[in-house]
Amino acid sequence: MTTTPLTADHLYATGLRGQWHPVVPSSFVAPGAMRKVTVLGEQWLLFRRSDGTLSMLADRCPHRGAPLSLGKHLGDRVACWYHGVEVETDGTVSSVPGLPGCNLEGKQLVVSLPVKEVSGAVLAYFGTEEQPQPVELTLPEPLTDPDTEAILCYAEWNVPWRYAVENLLDPMHGAFLHHDSHTMFDGDTTAKFRIRETDRGYFFEKTDQRGVNFDWVELCRTGVDWVDLSIPYPPSAGPGGPFGIVGMVRPVDAERCAVFFWRYRTVQGWQRDTWRFLYKTLIEKRHWEVLEQDRVMLEAMPADADQRENLYQHDLGVVRLRRLYRGGAEAQATA
Length: 335
Hints:
This protein has 335 residues and is of the alpha+beta class. It has two domains: 17-126, Rieske Iron-sulfur Protein; 141-334, Naphthalene 1,2-dioxygenase Alpha Subunit, Chain A, domain 1. The chain has five helices and 18 strands. The strands form four sheets. The chain has a seven-stranded antiparallel beta sheet with strand order 12-18-17-16-15-14-13. A four-stranded antiparallel beta sheet has the order 2-3-4-9, with no helix packed on it. The longest helix is centred in the last third of the chain and has 32 residues, at 269-300.
């Protein structure tokens, strides 16, 4: 856990609270295993019992503050390596071997976060004093639609989390940074954009081109922040129509983030099997190449890049995003 005061600047740099955030792919925590993870600048322990039940605890023993992630997995609880204090998956101290019956036992002294597993990823709720209980979570439709096949891609980048989200709210970079990719080579390199409000966020879209390149993106705030976008695909990529991406970004700390991209298409039956086969054998490698272009560009940008800019009309989506997050950070800090 962090001891840094939750000022507006700190929240803006490490991520807003009072909402759900993606943590890691579910496969990162096998049954009977533990994993240390940094989220929003804080240290946490993912703990999975042998029956598959997953918990997320603050990585801090309530006795002396030693990392629980260095401890022992005891099936349904974790024992701190330092003095053997045992903590249940809900954060309750179940045993103090050095002094049985002491006043620590039976108390919930370790923070435990609500978690959900969705389409191959772990989501956790990070509350505030005003909103300690989880807010309503509406998941992206492509991750819950039985007629949609979504495949998760996960990576960690040495870049502030906001830069990764801003990159997604900047469709025009597709025509330049990704021009030599297998899908974003076509269409005009000039465009005009507009913001179109929705009941869950907003679209940032080209007014004069659709269905040719990376032409639109929707920011959605439904208990968890995510984006949806679509990129046309040639027939050689198999059945399923346009290729969609659901994207989420996890702040690691002020300088690092983790990105979650679900690549999806609407397919059923044998077409689903065909799409998955083509993706794994042919398309996935190309997608990693596109992601690498984003990573290289963003990691090469200076830390003060957003303080020395000269923006124009194509950046309306980014400006709107910054105002939204800055306003949220100031409201949470004030509260």
